[in-house]
Fold:
Amino acid sequence: MPLIPFGKFRCPSCGSYVQRFSMINSLRRVAEKKCNSCGVKISSDLGLGRYALLLLYAHTVLAVTIVPLVLGMAGRKWGVTAASVAVFVALVWPTATMLHASNVTKRNREERETKG
Ligand SMILES: [Zn+2]
Structure:
């Protein structure tokens, strides 16, 4: 049995695997994506509690990685700068996508229309 790739999820409508949410999308409270296979709009609403925890976590990681980032930029040490960004992405993105992946629902049409 193949392992489910990290942060990926199944489409609630057709059951096929969908790509994970993007970095920017997964940092939103409500992440949205279209199914690659059937085209259904899938969304994940973390709710205020879990979203607050995610933001707190992201800000904590940011607080730790911002120091080498700024020092790297000031000293023109681009390797240090790139490493700081890589550490931030590596710590925050998987957490955010996994939170969203455990929470996906099919978005129905009425909901989309009333939102507009
Ligand atoms: Zn689908």
